[in-house]
Amino acid sequence: MNRPESLPGDKEQLSQRVFVSYATADRKQALQVCSAIEKRGTRCWISCRDVRPGENYQEAIVHSIRAAPAMVLVFSDAANNSDEIKKELSLASKFHVPVMALRIEDVEPSDAFAYELSTRQWIDAFRGWDKSIDSLVQTLDQMSDTVATGETASAMPNRPRLRLPRTRLLAIAVSLAVLLVVVLVAWLLLKPGAAPAQAAQVRLAEFQRLSPNLPATMPDAIRDELASAFPQDGTINVSTASAPVSGNGPAYALSGTVGNDGDKIRGIARLADERSGETIWSKSFEYPAGSPDKLPHWFALDAASVVKCALSAAATYPKPLPQKTLTLYFGVCAANTGVGELDAARRVVQATPDFSAGWSAVGNAALLWSQGADSQRAALRMESKAAADKALQIDPDNAQAYLTQSLLLPHSQLLQRETLLKKAVEARPLACGCEHHFYGWFLWEVGRVHDAGQELFRAIGQEPFDPQMHVNLAELILIQGFSQADADEQYKIAADMVPDPEFLDVQKLWSAPITGDYRTALDIVSSGRAKYLADDGRVALIAAYKAVISGDLVAKQNAAAMLEALPEDHREYLTVLMLGALGANDAALRQMETWDAEGKTVRARLFLWYPSMRGVISDPSFPATAQRMGLMTYWKTTHTKPDVCSDKAAPPFCRMI
């Protein structure tokens, strides 16, 4: 059974990972280099991805350089002026780590770098990307072979070894037999799974620039972004070759066009089977005309998300999936949630009734549609359950079906939900990382914020291009008291994926109940920059922010009354968080229980653990509410407690668990 890899950044995972050194200004290019190297089978360690929030940044750098078989220096004008890179090169020399410099710009090293780089090997990526990466990986392989044969053996004893828990170390000391058992079990659990039998071959073909005013480099930039957007798990093999791979199986080509369309830029993606010449899928995407430099990233992520969704599902079918069924499944992946997705999924299982992923798509789509269709809610939920059960009957390793089953349960059945979520995590990994994301949400719901963050890391490891995951991780970082800089890095990554100029402003609104920065939130709402808010909701939030800032008791009471008076369809999670900040504990708990009883959302409980809700969970009425919501039963049965119960001034309910 394929299992998700351990989190990037675990020190036990540092061994044999090439260290990627880069200047902060070159983060995007460095990630592309890292992705290109990993697509060719060599693992990398790169700080912007692999240093965990709260981890000592400098120590992580030192550990990873010392453990690396080689270092790749992404060299540019920015790198040429970076004091941090000089330190990293010095560490590489100290630990006898060979360095390969990859120049992404035609820049000669300054005097400060001349000594360190005088004996290093160079490859010029700006003269030809694919050939330069191929040459780089070949050289890295040779470096690894040299290390393995002992040329740098004097440095090897200083490298960190696999770290086991102290209890495991004691067991090893007591019995060599226990060690052998542990090693055997670890190998069985952690060994990489075999590549899927139906692994797809996708060639990144031509992307045409239809408007001459767009940058001439845009087609190549789109291909580079696409190459970085696909997973390295063997499910989809992506290449930039000039011709399709040989063989009899499908050979897909992903191509497209990009051009101006009024005040927008339109990108059209097309996936065709080069064997048959038939188009499998095509879709048009629109982007703001004012950001042509960001368009390649946005376009690549949009196109790749659909292709990954469909081809990853097709890879789970035990034989070649009929082309008609695959085309229909692309309709599932490309549709907006709702009736369109459900209709497409129904057609998939009609065409191929033994396709488990088709049934789980029906289950997921029916569940999503049921949340906004009160008149058909019961029927849709029945269809969702039957489809998820059918998916698991065909393939017990279908993680999506377990997720759907978990969401169909009453919200108070936390133990049963966790059982299903754990089954999803243990099943075949999903391309979206959704099983870890949903389990992370669950752990967050029950107050296990640290554990939730670990699951979010795992989710991002599987799908690093989902902005919602990065936003959630940023919130968890702030809730745990880590630095704003750690959270801002995640917010920035998410913002780079979203063509919405208000994205970061909206995130500041949501982070205010965590950080207490209500003045910034007030400025955003007062200036009209959060356009998604209804007019009455905006007025109520402005009053709430002003009242919290002033601390005036009467103003707080009036603001809370305004929030409570909002129509149900104008209330949102931010309403509850601000009720908590205003001290309206009863109102906040009533709203959460209402949502919970209606079964419209599972995630309202996440917000119990925001700092603005500390008064709510410390309120004498909270234990009874927690009991009705299933939380007290969960904590007592699992012998766990929310993280807040470890605080010196823990809320009173903690003593009742």
Question: Could you walk me through the main structural features you see in this protein, from its secondary elements to its overall organization?
Answer:
- The protein is α/β, with parallel strands linked by helices and 657 residues long.
- The protein folds into three domains: 11-162, Rossmann fold (3-Layer(aba) Sandwich), CATH 3.40.50; 200-426, Serine Threonine Protein Phosphatase 5, Tetratricopeptide repeat; 434-656.
- The chain is 54% helix and 10% strand.
- The protein contains 30 helices and ten strands.
- The protein has helices at residues 27-39, 47-50, 57-67, 77-80, 83-94, 111-117, 129-148, 166-174, 176-190, 218-229, 295-314, 323-334, 339-351, 356-370, 377-394, 399-408, 414-426, 434-445, 449-462, 467-479, 484-497, 503-515, 518-526, 535-550, 553-564, 573-581, 585-598, 614-617, 622-628, 631-638, and strands at residues 18-21, 44-45, 71-75, 99-103, 121-124, 200-209, 236-239, 252-261, 264-273, 279-288.
- The strands form two sheets. It has a five-stranded parallel β-sheet, sandwiched between helices. A five-stranded mixed β-sheet has the order 7-6-8-9-10.
- A hairpin with a 5-residue loop joins β9 (264-273) and β10 (279-288).
- The protein is globular.
- The protein starts with 17 loop residues before the first strand and ends in a 19-residue tail after the last helix.
- The model is unreliable at 1-15 and 147-197 (pLDDT under 50).
Could you give the topology of this structure?
Elements: E1 18-21, H1 27-39, E2 44-45, H2 47-50, H3 57-67, E3 71-75, H4 77-80, H5 83-94, E4 99-103, H6 111-117, E5 121-124, H7 129-148, H8 166-174, H9 176-190, E6 200-209, H10 218-229, E7 236-239, E8 252-261, E9 264-273, E10 279-288, H11 295-314, H12 323-334, H13 339-351, H14 356-370, H15 377-394, H16 399-408, H17 414-426, H18 434-445, H19 449-462, H20 467-479, H21 484-497, H22 503-515, H23 518-526, H24 535-550, H25 553-564, H26 573-581, H27 585-598, H28 614-617, H29 622-628, H30 631-638
Parallel strand pairs: 1-2, 1-3, 3-4, 4-5, 6-7, 6-8
Antiparallel strand pairs: 8-9, 9-10
Helix pairs in contact: 1-10, 8-9, 10-11, 11-12, 12-13, 13-14, 14-15, 14-16, 15-16, 16-17, 17-18, 18-19, 19-20, 20-21, 20-22, 22-23, 23-24, 24-25, 24-26, 26-27
